[in-house]
């Protein structure tokens, strides 16, 4: 057995074949069954809330005595005024709707079922009686008679707070909602836990309401700009990359020059300002000497860093060119596969539908369970008790796992389409809809692999979220050591999650190529990435920066357009919230679209690495790559360099790419059988050699410099006293 139950390659098998787009079989079927069972459990929770009445209480509402509005209710033991017939009372009315609990984020007012919401302001108890007599809707507690409201002593505690604001029922949830915007301000304070100047928040909300058309238009502009950037980024990527390279080199040279200039200036002119303590002190201390030594260490370290940076630029210039070529080919992919631009919409729609369902079921769980009387307010609430309270935790795990599953399906779909594009020699013979073909392959063969990969991310994300919650709850209470430990654990889990996300994405691409299980694909992809470590580092560093600049360009362009459109509003305070909403939405849209571009680039690189590893351009081993990628491997020479373009004949038959490999962690061996019997041979690639020769010495040097740069000891009491005496004279 292999990793996590996957089938392992037998030791007798010495050939590892990559068969792009040839053989298909179901992968990780047990994980698909496990995920199906989990989803059935999620649906069972929803069914449980519906059967036990939690969904009805949320939709129709219930009063403070446990009665569901609009229905005939059963008596609840120990709760007075329960079991009433509210067939004609379909709306929930709060006696004090603006009494918001900021901490618990809920209304602390008593709730009653009424037949009609007050549409006009009621200022006196006489108005309450008139409203009850004319409309048959009693707004005080059930045991009080409507015609006696003005004279009852209980009217101050069991009747609504005066004046009663006008309200209207919500379209679905049948709650009487005040029309006064000040209550919305209180609701906003409860949601964002913002307690401050109500008038300022009122102005912000009014600014959003007045600028809603502009906000929608700017959001559409962000969508259009994101699509345009995805098309033109292949033309401007070269300029951005070389500008970035030039800025980094010039910045390091300038920083080093400034440090050496400061050191020389200190040596030439610093002695004039230095002073010596009196001869009574045994050890003479020169303040300038410590500063000069620190500047010398900094200048030397900056010089070494600059030299190493220049060497890295020299060694990695071809890899930077590979990044530019990959961006160029990624742009071609979007031209041949235009439906890729719809992937963010489809994924967002799937996530949005699932999140709406998840929030509804969570609200259902909040009104499901046994009736419990609140000791502070005396109101009846419904809570899950006993083993049923773990349903909320199960539901929370489902939020993370299914969300990651949907994102993983997007990655697998994009990877399958890009793999189809790359390994099809004649682009005129591409399927009519490669995206739909990739989706069908995913649904038919690889849902188990996606479920397994998303579950691994869930195992890392949930502990990180729990630690973040604990850190937030203990804020200001824990000591410095515990706070540092929590932050360290959160940071480590975040880094592990990012690494696993990257590895999962490449594992999905390997599965799309060879139809192997998750662990086998992850192992094969990991070997390919390790053998191209510096290429991966260059593509991620340079490529991520270029994409980040694209995101910034979209956000700043949208914000600039927003400033121009909002300029007619004289109150500049009203700009804040609309611009924040527009900038957040534009960044989200840019991130969604450019993340698809990033996935395409990563999958193209994995295909390129596999192509260059197992093919050399000779007959029978023709390259699959685009001609734009040829310069990235032309310097490697070989037989393919003599075969013209090296791209193979148009429409040539795809052959399996075979390499000699064992089953130990995917370490590739190209040795004879006698050498294989003698032991395992580790072939270090050029990237690994550069890593050992440059990266490790660099990190060791910086560690040594940091140890040298120790703070000078504090002067003794006698030294300080002598210095003070000298200063006096």
From TrEMBL:
<feature type="transmembrane region" description="Helical">
    <location>
        <begin position="575"/>
        <end position="608"/>
    </location>
</feature>
<feature type="transmembrane region" description="Helical">
    <location>
        <begin position="295"/>
        <end position="315"/>
    </location>
</feature>
<keyword id="KW-0812">Transmembrane</keyword>
<comment type="function">
    <text>Choline transporter.</text>
</comment>
<keyword id="KW-1133">Transmembrane helix</keyword>
<dbReference type="GO" id="GO:0005886">
    <property type="term" value="C:plasma membrane"/>
</dbReference>
<protein>
    <recommendedName>
        <fullName>Choline transporter-like protein</fullName>
    </recommendedName>
</protein>
<feature type="transmembrane region" description="Helical">
    <location>
        <begin position="240"/>
        <end position="263"/>
    </location>
</feature>
<feature type="transmembrane region" description="Helical">
    <location>
        <begin position="393"/>
        <end position="423"/>
    </location>
</feature>
<feature type="transmembrane region" description="Helical">
    <location>
        <begin position="545"/>
        <end position="569"/>
    </location>
</feature>
<dbReference type="Pfam" id="PF04515">
    <property type="entry name" value="Choline_transpo"/>
</dbReference>
<feature type="transmembrane region" description="Helical">
    <location>
        <begin position="29"/>
        <end position="51"/>
    </location>
</feature>
<dbReference type="InterPro" id="IPR007603">
    <property type="entry name" value="Choline_transptr-like"/>
</dbReference>
<feature type="transmembrane region" description="Helical">
    <location>
        <begin position="320"/>
        <end position="339"/>
    </location>
</feature>
<keyword id="KW-0472">Membrane</keyword>
<dbReference type="GO" id="GO:0022857">
    <property type="term" value="F:transmembrane transporter activity"/>
</dbReference>
<feature type="transmembrane region" description="Helical">
    <location>
        <begin position="688"/>
        <end position="708"/>
    </location>
</feature>
<comment type="similarity">
    <text>Belongs to the CTL (choline transporter-like) family.</text>
</comment>
<feature type="transmembrane region" description="Helical">
    <location>
        <begin position="345"/>
        <end position="365"/>
    </location>
</feature>
<feature type="transmembrane region" description="Helical">
    <location>
        <begin position="214"/>
        <end position="233"/>
    </location>
</feature>
């Amino acid at each position: 057995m292999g990793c996590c139950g996957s089938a392992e390659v037998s030791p007798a098998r010495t050939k590892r074949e990559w068969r792009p787009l040839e053989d298909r079989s179901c992968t990780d079927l047990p994980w698909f069954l496990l995920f199906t069972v989990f989803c059935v459990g999620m649906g069972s929770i929803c069914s449980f809330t519906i059967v036990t009445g939690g969904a009805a209480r949320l939709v129709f509402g219930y009063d403070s005595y446990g009665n569901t509005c609009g229905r005939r209710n059963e008596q609840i033991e120990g709760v007075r005024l329960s079991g009433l017939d509210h067939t004609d009372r379909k709306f929930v009315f709060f006696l004090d709707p603006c009494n918001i609990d900021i901490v618990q984020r809920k209304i602390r007012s008593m709730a009653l079922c009424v037949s009609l919401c007050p549409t006009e302001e009621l200022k006196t108890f006489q108005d309450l009686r008139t409203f009850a007599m004319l409309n048959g809707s009693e707004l005080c507690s059930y045991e009080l008679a409507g015609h006696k409201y003005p004279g009852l002593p209980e009217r101050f505690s069991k009747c609504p707070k005066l004046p009663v604001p006008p309200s209207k029922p919500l379209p679905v949830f049948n709650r009487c909602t005040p029309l006064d915007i000040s209550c919305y301000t209180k609701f906003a304070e409860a949601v964002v836990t913002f307690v401050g100047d109500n008038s300022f928040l009122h102005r912000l909300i009014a600014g959003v309401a007045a600028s809603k058309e502009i906000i929608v238009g700017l959001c559409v502009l962000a969508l259009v700009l994101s699509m345009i950037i995805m098309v033109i980024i292949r033309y401007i990527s070269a300029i951005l990359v070389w500008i970035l390279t030039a800025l980094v080199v010039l910045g390091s040279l300038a920083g080093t020059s400034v440090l050496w200039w400061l050191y020389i200036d200190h040596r030439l002119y610093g002695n004039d300002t230095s002073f010596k303590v009196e001869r009574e002190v045994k050890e003479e201390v020169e303040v300038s000497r410590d500063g000069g030594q620190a500047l010398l260490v900094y200048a030397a370290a900056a010089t070494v860093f600059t030299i190493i940076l220049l060497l890295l630029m020299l060694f990695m210039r071809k890899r930077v060119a590979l990044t530019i070529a990959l961006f160029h080919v990624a742009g071609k992919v979007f031209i041949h596969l235009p439906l890729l631009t719809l992937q963010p919409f489809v994924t967002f729609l799937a996530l949005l539908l699932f999140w709406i369902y998840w929030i509804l079921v969570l609200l259902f769980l909040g009104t499901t369970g046994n009736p419990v009387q609140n000791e502070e307010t005396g109101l009846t609430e419904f809570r899950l008790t006993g083993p049923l309270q773990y349903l909320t935790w199960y539901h929370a795990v489902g939020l993370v796992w299914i969300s990651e599953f949907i994102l993983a399906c997007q990655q697998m779909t994009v990877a399958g389409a890009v793999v189809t594009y790359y390994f099809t020699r004649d682009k005129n013979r591409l399927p009519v809809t490669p995206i739909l073909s990739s989706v069908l392959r995913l649904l038919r063969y690889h849902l188990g692999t996606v479920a397994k990969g998303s579950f691994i991310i869930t195992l890392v994300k949930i502990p990180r979220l729990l630690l973040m919650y604990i850190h937030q709850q203990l804020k200001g209470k824990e000591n410095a050591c515990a706070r540092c430990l929590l932050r360290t654990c959160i940071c480590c889990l975040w880094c592990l999650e990012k690494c696993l996300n990257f590895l999962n994405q490449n594992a999905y691409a390997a599965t799309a190529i060879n139809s192997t299980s998750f662990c086998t694909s992850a192992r094969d992809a990991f070997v390919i990435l390790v053998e191209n470590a510096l290429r991966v580092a260059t593509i991620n560093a340079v490529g991520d920066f270029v994409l980040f600049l694209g995101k910034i360009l979209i956000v700043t362009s949208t914000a600039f357009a927003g400033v121009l459109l909002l300029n007619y509003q004289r109150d500049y305070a009203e700009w804040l919230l609309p611009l924040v909403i527009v900038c957040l939405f534009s960044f989200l849209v840019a991130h969604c679209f450019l993340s698809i571009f990033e996935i395409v680039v990563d999958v193209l690189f994995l295909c390129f690495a596999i192509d260059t590893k197992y093919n050399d351009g000779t007959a029978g081993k023709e390259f699959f790559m685009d001609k734009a990628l040829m310069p990235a491997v032309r310097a490697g020479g070989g037989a393919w360099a003599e075969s013209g373009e090296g791209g193979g004949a148009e429409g040539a038959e795809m052959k399996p790419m075979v390499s000699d490999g064992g089953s130990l962690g995917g370490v590739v061996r190209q040795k004879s059988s006698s050498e294989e019997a003698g032991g395992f041979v580790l072939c270090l690639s050029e990237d690994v050699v550069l890593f050992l020769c440059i990266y490790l010495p660099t990190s060791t040097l910086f560690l040594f410099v940091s140890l040298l740069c120790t703070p000078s000891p504090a002067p003794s009491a006698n030294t300080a006293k002598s210095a003070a005496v000298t200063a006096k004279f």
